[in-house]
Structure formats: structure tokens, C-alpha cells
Amino acid sequence: MENLKKKTFFTIFIIISLFAFVFATFFNVQTYHREYEGILNNLTRMKNLMLKRPEPFDREMKPISDDELRNRKVMDYEVYTFILNDNNDIVDKISHSDNAISDEIITKAKNIIANNNSNKIKIGCLYWNKYAYNYEDGNSLTIVNISNKRNMLLTNLLISLLLVFIGEIIIYIISKKITEWITKPVLESFNREKEFVANASHELKTPLAVMMANIDCLEENKKSEKWINNLKNESDRMSNLITKLLDLSKTEYLKKENFSENNLSMIIEKRALTFESLAYEKNITIETNITEKINFFCHKESIDELIAILIDNAISHGKETSKIKINLTNNKEIKLEVINEGEPILENECEKIFERFYRNDKSHNRKSGRYGLGLAIAKNIVLAHNGNIKAYSKNGYTTFEVKFKTNEH
């Protein structure tokens, strides 16, 4: 259920965030493009005037005189023209705005003339450059002071980033609310299912206990021995199933307040020892490679059950006269591996085997005494500890791998 909520939340959050990011990007790109085109148009017009060529849209325009050039005003931009002689010396300076030509502008003009030997329009990045210019060798130099435009664009960019940051906080809150609203019916259904399993299991325990007690009494009648044995076997199976269902229900309700710091190495070592006699019956040896003193914040009883399920599963599906390896390491994260040699798990079943009541024995052989709940319980325990579990088969060996984050409280 937690995975569903996380996936729903991140999907909503990412989609809304992308819309906000695209809108902010579009706004800044449009503003940048508009200002860039404005600067380019001004430089191009001044270039045409200085070369005494009419613009394409006005073929009747006559060459401009020096007085007309001096009186030419440009709105919204600081534009300056420097008239050059054949030796590229400045012979005249003209301001096309109300601003006087500063020493900084004159110094900039001299640097441009000294460092350029070909005609070109140079604008560059509006976020970094302070000036744009058009240089015509032996004719003129037009400089546009774009400081104000640069400051405006940077201000817009910073405001956009700030709004996106604030928006992300609002989007986070909205995404949480929408996620709760979307997953509420699923959560209610999920909780009802868990309550049903727990309640049904408890209700079945009492009549089952009575049945088994009566069967014990009837065993004295030898004439009914066959039928009584059948009833007893089925009662035992039902009792085991109810126990498993209760275990499954309990692992879905594990709470952090019941967790404590435990020596995981010791838990696994002790549990492995209890299975040696069972493994011996199949002539299987258990080999442990456990790093000592790995402490883990966990629910001790459920972790002990997790280890038992994995080892029991390895023995049940392992080949006779084979070896089971149990590895425990701690390198940035705690990793537990239970490896056995036996029939491999098909690739398309590696996820399914953790589903409730799933068994790769398609015939559902009742003699095995298994219900397909053990690995589902194991997965619930791992998820309750914010870990992950997976299974895979390779080169004749099957590995169940569990990973936990180190000391996560």
C-alpha cells in the first residue's frame, strides 16, 4: 500500500512540476528572444543608415544626412554611434538617447576598434554581456548598452526560480492531498481485507480447536480410524493455514514503536543452527558467512521469522547432498543472501513467488503442506523495515537477496 501511495504521489508531483517548469522556461525564453530581436533590429537599422542603404521595406528612403543621423533617437535603448575615418580613428561621437556618452563607452569603443578587423554584429549572451555592437571597418561603430536589459532578464529569471521553488512547495502539498484522495478508497479496501483475514482466522480457530478435540476422543473407536485420520489431517492443514494467515496479518501491522536495536548477526546465526537437523535429514549442509556485530533497528521476532522462512524455503527446494549458503554483509547497506542449489525459478516467476497463495507447483500438491504464504510473509516483513527482497536463479543456484538501509530509525 505504501508503494502505491509513493508511486501515485511522485507521478502527480512530477506531472504538475513539469507543467510549472515548462511555463517558467517558456516565459523566460520568450522574453529573452524578444529582447534579443529588439537589440538586433536596432543594430541592423543603424548599420543600414550608416552605410546609407535604405531598408528593404522602404526602397524610396533617401540617404541620411549627418544632421539627420545626429537627431535620430532610439526608444528604450542606449545607442551610441562613433564615426570612423579610413584609418579607423574616431572623428565624431553621437548619442541616440538622452544619455551623454560616458568615458566607459568611449573606452569600450576604442577596445572594439583595436580588436576587430572585420565587419560584424556582436550581441552575445544577454545574461552576461553589457554591450552589443555593430562594427563597420573604416565607416562606423554602433554600440548598444544592454545593461538594463541584462538586469531585467536576470531579475525575471530569479523571480521565475523563486516562484518555481515556492510553487514546488505548494505542488508538494497539493500532491499529498490528491494522493490521499485517490488512494483513500484503495486504502479502505485494503484495510477491510486485512481485517477480514485477521477476524476470519480468529473466528475459525475456536471451532477448529473443538473439532480437533472431538477427533481425539473418537480415535478410541477403531472402526472409524480411516475417516478420523482423514478428518485429523485436514484439521491439521486448516490449523496451519489459519496460523499462516494470522502471521501474514500481523506482519502487515508492524509498528515502528515496537522496533529496537538488535544484533542481526546473532539472530541469523542462532536461527541457522536450529535448521541444521532439518537440513541433515536431506543430507544438506548449511554454511554461514556472517559479518559479526551488525546492529539493526528492527522488530526482532519478525526478523527471526524472516530468516526461518528463507532457510526453510532453501531446504525444501534444495537438492539432496547439496549446500546452503547464508551470507550477511554490511557495506553502506545490510545485505542478506540465502543461496541454495536446486530447481531454478523461472524469470517470469521471480516477482510472482512473493504473492499470497502463489505456488510454482501448478498442481497445488496438497502433500507438500505449503500454501504459498511464507514468501508473502517474508516480503511484508522486509517492506515493514523499508528494505527490498528479490529472488533470482543463475548457474543452477537460486538466491534470495534482502537489503536493508543501515540503522534507519
Describe this structure in words.
This protein has helices spanning 2-50, 66-70, 103-115, 147-218, 225-251, 264-274, 276-281, 300-317, 374-384; strands spanning 78-84, 90-95, 120-122, 131-136, 140-145, 260-263, 285-290, 295-298, 323-331, 333-341, 388-394, 397-405. The longest helix has 72 residues, at 147-218. The strands form 3 sheets. A 5-stranded antiparallel β-sheet has the order 2-1-5-4-3, with helices on both faces. A 5-stranded mixed β-sheet has the order 7-9-10-12-11. The chain is elongated, with a radius of gyration of 40 Å. It contains 9 helices and 12 strands. 20% of the residues are buried. Helices cover 52% and strands 19% of the residues. A hairpin with an 8-residue loop joins β3 and β4. The chain folds into 2 domains: 2-151; 257-405, Histidine kinase-like ATPase, C-terminal domain (Heat Shock Protein 90).
